[in-house]
Specification:
There is one protein chain. The chain is α/β, with parallel strands linked by helices and 226 residues long. The chain has helices at residues 3-22, 28-39, 41-53, 103-117, 134-146, 162-172, 209-217, 220-224, and strands at residues 55-58, 63-71, 77-84, 93-98, 122-125, 149-153, 177-182, 202-206.
Amino acid sequence: MTSTQFTFFRGYIREWVETLFLFNVISSRTCEDLKAWSRGPDGKKHATELFSKGYTHNPELKLRLQLKQLREMSGGRFPHIEATTTTRTRAVKLCFVGHRFVRSIERTLRWNLRQVLEPYNVRLDWSGRDPRSVQIFEDIVRRIRKADFCVFDNRATNGKPNVYIEAGIAYAFRVPFFLFAYSPENGTSQALSIPSNLSHALAFRYRNYRELFRRLYFSLPAFFHK
């Protein structure tokens, strides 16, 4: 394990446990204990195992960690640590995913969502066609109404409002949703504006998927902790 990897490990654990504390999932004592553990010799031992084997387990803390590789549109990869402190079985939840149907987005966005949502027992659903046909539109409405929540990504949707139509359907049927709003890193194209009727939505502006999925991951404990 490199020093960079250990720094990444400590930062991830710190942000994760502080998120759990802020949303009343753990106590302040547990929060500080877990942060101290991640900086100490035992934490370093588990970090080494995580980066060498891809997973590690601390029975005393009831902590399981798995290292996953998420994807960028450019074809690159970036690390994600999945941390869980419970073995209880969660009820299956259905997430409808709406995005521009470009092959690179389909494979990248769905892969990342499946990885990040896996510990919450979430099944992804989507429609692969343009809702210009009445029958296809009705199928999309049916799928959204069945969903426990939705994710909509506006990347590459300039001039193609289908994602916003789908978000409007979710809003009309009071289905909770996340709205991912892409803002290019290099400034070569303008960030898409969010329609005013959806401006209240839980929106994540992002420049790359590394940034987006880190923010999403640390929002999930509040979303799923009922």
